[in-house]
UniProtKB/TrEMBL annotation:
Keywords: Cell membrane, Membrane, Transmembrane, Transmembrane helix, Transport. It is found in: Cell membrane. The lineage of its organism: Bacteria, Pseudomonadati, Pseudomonadota, Alphaproteobacteria, Hyphomicrobiales. This is Carbohydrate ABC transporter membrane protein 1, CUT1 family. It is a multi-pass membrane protein. InterPro entries: ABC_transporter_permease, MetI-like, MetI-like_sf. GO terms for cellular component: plasma membrane. It holds the Pfam family BPD_transp_1.
Length: 296
């Protein structure tokens, strides 16, 4: 009877160094970052505390406000577009089409690329003098325009298209794995009942794929928060600041403009924003106990 508690204590003792490392490397650095955001640090961290001055300066910056607006647009369109395109590709492949393995590889291949490579590819495709616009105009359609990467109004949407092109293959792979796990008897029953396929997918299959959809959303959300290299490679945040995002703002002020205080303030705002969204979701998804029947 005493063997099990002893083993648990031994296991806890063995895991303690790993937990200490995690706390020091992650929690410790986050706390230190937040501490620096309340100082007047420039090139190097200093202990000159200035209260919320850095945050006031941050939210009075047009560049920061534009970056927040852009990341909201990019996040919503990128996640929704990747989910829709990835799910449609999975549905198409689930019909057991010919050359399925080849098509699956082609659709998934962009995800194997880095965001830098994806950005460079789409920078070339959207170049007015080299890419799609030039090719279509050479075919005789001279009024055609696809210069979004250099268009101030459309630059952020160019980033969205490039991101969807890369990430939809990952969503396809997840959704296809889920579709292949659907019981064949379900499909037989819906055919007997005469239910249209689109209603089956929308009202039966999609709810069954909820865990996979949540996984896809989490993975895509990480890409949204970390959106830096794709923006740098495709538009460099331009024209002007038209496609600026928080990650690029932070990196620029941290390494180029040498304003650590403002950069850490921006990083802290992003951390609080992500935590405020993630914490309630984790609570309702995993930690909230099911209500007993009859409870108010």
């Amino acid at each position: 009877m005493t063997t099990r508690p002893r083993r648990l204590r031994m296991a806890t003792f063995v895991v303690l160094p790993a937990w200490a490392l995690v706390l020091a490397a992650y929690v410790g650095t986050m706390v230190w970052t937040m501490q620096i955001s309340f100082t007047d640090s420039k090139l190097l961290p200093v202990d000159t505390y200035v209260g919320f001055d850095q945050y006031e300066r941050l939210f009075s910056s047009t560049r920061w406000l534009v970056s927040l607006q852009n990341v909201a647009i990019f996040g919503v369109l990128f996640i929704a577009g990747s989910l829709v395109v990835g799910f449609l590709l999975a549905v198409a492949l689930d019909q057991h089409v010919r050359f399925e393995n080849t098509l699956r590889t082609i659709f998934l291949y962009p995800y194997a690329m880095s965001f830098i490579v994806t950005g460079l590819i789409w920078q070339w495709l959207m170049n007015p003098g080299l890419g799609i616009q030039k090719a279509v105009q050479n075919w005789g359609w001279e009024s055609f325009r696809f210069d979004w990467a250099v268009n101030r109004e459309m630059a952020i949407y160019a980033v969205v298209i490039a991101g969807i092109w890369q990430a939809s293959g990952l969503v396809m792979a997840l959704m296809l794995a889920g579709l292949r796990g659907i019981d064949a008897d379900l499909w037989k029953a819906t055919r007997i009942e005469g239910i249209p396929p689109w209603r089956v997918y929308l009202f039966i299959i999609v709810p069954m794929l909820r865990p996979l959809i949540i996984t896809a959303v989490v993975l895509l959300s990480i890409g949204v928060v970390k959106a830096f290299d794709l923006v740098v490679a495709l538009t460099s945040g331009g024209p002007g600041i038209a496609s600026e995002v928080p990650a690029k703002f932070i990196m620029d002020y941290l390494f180029t403009r040498q304003n650590i205080g403002l950069a850490t303030a921006a990083a802290t705002v992003m951390l609080i924003t992500v935590a405020s969204v993630l914490t309630p979701w984790l609570y309702f998804e995993y930690f909230r106990k099911a209500r007993p029947r009859g409870a108010a």
